[in-house]
Amino acid sequence: METGDPQKDKQKYISTSEGGFFNAIMSFPPNYPVHPPSVRFTSEMWHPNVYPDGRVCISILHAPGDDPNGYELASERWTPVHTVESIVLSIISMLSSPNDESPANIEAAKEWRDRKDVFRKKVSRCVRRSQEG
């Protein structure tokens, strides 16, 4: 049940995903740091900003320059000043604050917006599975 308070609703998501052990692979292209690495979860994930195959979709991992779709400013996209640490922090932030305005997983975004109880159950299942090994 939603409270109508975005901060409390956000905390409910955090507590739902907290405690999970989610594995991911960060792959660096030959032209790094000019172009960003890619990140893919190898653990099961249910999140608006994670494609069904595990690829992470956040602005700082998008190629530098203007967004051909017009969703992001060039300043929000990859620049060589980003580090592995800033990428990991951005992913942690993404996990606690889904962006459902340009989702990678449309079904997860719909549930995040309209059926948070169902969404939380799926995230909780992913957390449990991640704890099992």
UniProtKB/TrEMBL annotation:
Domain UBC core, chain residue ranges per copy: 1-132
GO molecular function, one term: ATP binding
InterPro entries: Ub_conjugating_enzyme, UBC, UBQ-conjugating_AS, UBQ-conjugating_enzyme/RWD
Keyword annotations from UniProtKB, A to Z: ATP-binding, Nucleotide-binding, Transferase, Ubl conjugation pathway
Active site per database record: 57
Keyword presence, Nucleotide-binding: yes
Keyword ATP-binding: yes
PROSITE patterns recorded: UBC_1, UBC_2
Family under the similarity heading: Belongs to the ubiquitin-conjugating enzyme family.
UniProt cross-references to PANTHER family, sorted A to Z: UBIQUITIN-CONJUGATING ENZYME E2
Protein name: Ubiquitin-conjugating enzyme E2 14
Species lineage: Eukaryota, Viridiplantae, Streptophyta, Embryophyta, Tracheophyta
